[in-house]
Amino acid sequence: MDKFDEDTVKVPFGTKCLDAALCFPAPDKDVHTAVILTHGAGGDMNFRHLVSLAHALASEGFLCLRFTCKGLNLGYRVKAYRAVWDYLKSLQRFTIKHIFVGGRSMGSRAAAAVTRKLSDESEDAVQGVICLSFPLHPPAQTHTHQQRSEDLRGLPENVPVLFVSGTEDNMCDRVLFEGTIKQMKAQVEVFWIEGSSHGLAVKGRSEDSVLDDVNLQVVTWMKEQGA
């Protein structure tokens, strides 16, 4: 693995600050693409999947800014995400030309929602969206899938989306999910993990091997988008 550095930072958010971590290649002089990541309803920015992906991204020459936002209200999460996006844009240390946004579970809902808002302001605000275990509905509550997928259907066609989902995810019925994708204007790619749960756990496989597959898929997809 190539060398990378990580700094903890505080992102201004209203009258308080969000805890965040900036992971970047060393040396960092040629960093032009950044990824913002956040966690699901539980956990924080140090959730293992996010840390693993951040380190993989930095090893491939990308900057990754992951942050913690504990609020369970989606609107609040979107405001926090916007604050992190603004913070990243303001950094003088890097010459960032492209920004991808993403998250895990509820964090991916927030990423889709903030992309929809940013795209209304500027066509090239977001280079792509990365959704890890998108929660199309709560367990056994598939009737909510239309409301949960509203922001996905509202994404413009020029913003590509990568979904990483498990075939056994009890929060993402596959038939409903594939129906949702057909309704989306955006270019979509789905990486299915066979036998994986919502937490990307696969019986008989180590967590590291699953995360290695996920990280490779994300990095490859980003490069295909011109990152």
Automatic annotation (TrEMBL):
SUPFAM superfamilies xrefs: alpha/beta-Hydrolases (SSF53474)
Domain KANL3/Tex30 alpha/beta hydrolase-like: 33-212
Annotated InterPro entries: AB_hydrolase_fold, KANL3/Tex30_Abhydrolase, NSL3/Tex30
Pfam families, alphabetized: Abhydrolase_11
PANTHER family with a match to the protein in the record: TESTIS DEVELOPMENT PROTEIN PRTD, TESTIS-EXPRESSED PROTEIN 30
Protein's name according to its UniProt entry: Testis expressed 30
Gene it is expressed from: tex30
